[in-house]
Amino acid sequence: MLTRHGHDPHDLDTVYVVKDFKQSNETLLARSDAILHMLNQLGGIWTLAGIGRVLPKAVRDFLYKTVARNRYRVFGKHESCMLPEPKHRQKFLDL
């Protein structure tokens, strides 16, 4: 999928969101664009994060990379990944 959107398939050091999966207008969002999209999809108070779009993309991505670089220090590190509950399973790609 990354190759189809012009990205290196080995570059998995960021977060990606596939918007409109398998539709003619499918797009791949990365870094801050992906995070802002996810927060908007959560709804409620999280939609306020959309204000971040007023910042230039370069600034947003710099902030994203700074948080990503320090995430273990802030959030800790777990030995295993959380699996989605069955009710949320349809939100994940299963290739």
The neighbouring-strand order within the major sheet is 1-2
Radius of gyration: 15 Å
Count the E strands: 2
Beta-strand content bin: 5-15%
User: Helical proportion?
Assistant: 25-40%
Shape: globular
Number of distinct helices: 2
**Main β-sheet, in a few words?**
2 strands, antiparallel
Order of helices and strands: EEHH
Derived from helix and strand composition plus strand pairing, the structural class reads alpha+beta
Low-confidence stretches: none
Mean pLDDT: 88
Termini gap: 10 Å
Plain-language structure description:
The chain contains two helices and two strands; from the N terminus they run ββαα. A hairpin with a 7-residue loop joins strand 1 and strand 2 (27-30). The protein has helices spanning 31-42, 57-75; strands spanning 16-19, 27-30. It has a two-stranded antiparallel ribbon.
